[in-house]
Amino acid sequence: MSLPQSNQKRSSFSAAISLIRQALSGEHQDYTTGSIRRAVILLSVPMILEMCMESVFAIVDIFFVGRIGERAVATVGLTESVLTLVYSAAMGLAMAATAMVARRIGEKNPEGASRAAAQSINLALVMTIVVSTVGAYFAADILRLMGASPATVESGVSYTRIVFGGSIVIMLLFLINGIFRGAGNASMAMWSLWIANGCNILLCPLMIHFYGLKGAAIATTIGRGVGVCFQLYHLARGSGTLRILWKHFRPDGTVILGLVKIAWSGFFQFFINSASWIVMAWLVARFKDTAIAGYQVSIRILLFFLLPAWG
Question: Distance (Å, rounded) from C-alpha 83 to C-alpha 134?
Answer without folding.
Answer: 12
